[in-house]
Amino acid sequence: MEALPVFLNVRNVRCLVAGGGEVAFRKARLLARAQAELHVVAPEAGESMLNLLQEHGGRLDRREIREEDFAGAQLAIAATDDPGANENVSRWARARGIPVNVVDQPALCTFYMPAIVDRSPVVVAISSSGASPVLTRSLKEMNEVMLPARIDRLALLLGSMREEVKGRIADFAGRTTFWENVLGSEVPELVYAGKENEARAAMERILGGAQQRTGEVWLVGAGPGDPDLLTLRALRLMYRADIVLYDRLVSAEILARIRPDAELIHVGKGPEMHSVDQYTINDMLIRYAREGRKVLRLKGGDPFIFGRGGEELTTLAEAGINFQIVPGITAASGCAAYAGIPLTHREHAHSVQFVTGHLKDGSLDLDWPALIRPQHTLVFYMGLKSLPIVCEQLRQHGMAVDTPAAVVSQGTTTEQQVAAGNLVNLPDVATSQNIKAPAIIIVGEVVSLRDSFAWFRS
């Protein structure tokens, strides 16, 4: 380890900044966020720096930096375009034992400014010891994405109970075990879901020794197939689940993201295939939750768009089971985007409608006249077997025979295929390309834009 990572308390501490440009402003802004007392020395100061000093407070001396400026300072940063001035700042600060940072000159520094992920009071600092600022910025972006947005609320909740815990659990090892139990319980997810009162009550139960493993069901949308389209909350819950009930449309790549020791149960349904009926699935969710297990109900796309999530939610609510709902990118949005088809576009479509294309008793009973509208996009889910019927019915009810249409098969995955044509030839095109389910049908003028917009090609 080339440098010791530390967090300095600079609240009300005089910090010297040499420079008034944009780089100096960014450093001064960080100090201001840490509630430091700012002293900026620069012949010229930009508008950003002036606004910061006006809002935060601080002193500005419009001149070159001097050695006497370091009297009373406890931290110094040099961000000028004058190499001589930067060297002077480093030398004068070192002589007084003041921590100093010179931007982009590691040899002149006694400390480095890290990339920061701020979820105060949770702060993550990342440094490459000055070797690669761009790398640290990239790592910062990764941490920004992965840290839950409400982790600050979790930290504040835990902090608010520290004294109570210390008073009731005398030994350090016992307190450590308590906090580990809290973080391994439902408390974090309750906070992340905005249920802080329930989280505090759960902590009180654990502290009182009456810890009871509470079951919960998470209805999670897995998106259309590409694991990169999973939401952050979906990923987090996938790694915390004890048992996973997943649908046929959940891809193998997504299943690979689930915690390795979780129990996986396939409950998918498909055309002429009903492995587990819906009533049985509902009963399973209730039974496993009552056993105290964390149950992940993982559905392709979004749970509430042709996913029967509403039925499962109603059952859970009636049974008094705790649940969370995590929306996912629905197939229409994901598959259309990867196929280069905008569902709405000026002068082509100002509305879009999602319709089930699932055949029942060999027929498709829809209000066909209501679907025929100008500048309107139709998306049929589960409609591959009904593709000839869809095209025929739309033509018979007045839609132009040359209306562009497409079928997107296994959308967003590496196996994606797109068959494009019109209401007359699309069934034959799909057959000739051996298009397979799962697939969606997109009908409307927006399909004609595919050649201009598509970046993914099968």
In short:
The protein is of the alpha/beta class and 458 residues long.
Query: What is the residue-mean pLDDT, rounded to a whole number?
Result: 90
Strand content: 15-25%
Q: Given the structure, what is the number of helices?
A: 18
Enumerate the spans where pLDDT stays under 50 for 5 or more consecutive residues.
none
Q: Which labels suit this protein?
A:
4 domains; Cobalt-precorrin-4 Transmethylase, domain 1; 36% helix; 19 strands; 5-stranded parallel β-sheet; 19% strand; 458 residues; 18 helices; Rossmann fold; alpha/beta
Protein model, in words:
The structure is a single chain. α1 (22-33) packs parallel to α2. The chain has helices at 22-33, 47-56, 83-95, 133-146, 151-160, 162-168, 172-183, 187-192, 196-207, 232-240, 252-255, 278-290, 309-319, 331-338, 368-371, 387-396, 426-432, 450-453; strands at residues 14-18, 37-41, 59-61, 75-78, 100-102, 115-119, 122-126, 216-221, 243-246, 263-266, 269-270, 273-274, 294-299, 323-326, 351-356, 376-381, 404-409, 417-422, 439-443. The protein is built from 18 helices and 19 strands. The chain folds into four domains: 1-113, Rossmann fold (3-Layer(aba) Sandwich); 151-207; 216-329, Cobalt-precorrin-4 Transmethylase, domain 1 (3-Layer(aba) Sandwich); 332-453, Tetrapyrrole methylase, C-terminal domain (Methyltransferase, Cobalt-precorrin-4 Transmethylase, Domain 2). The protein has a five-stranded parallel beta sheet, sandwiched between helices. The longest helix is centred in the first third of the chain and has 14 residues, at 133-146. The mean pLDDT is 90.
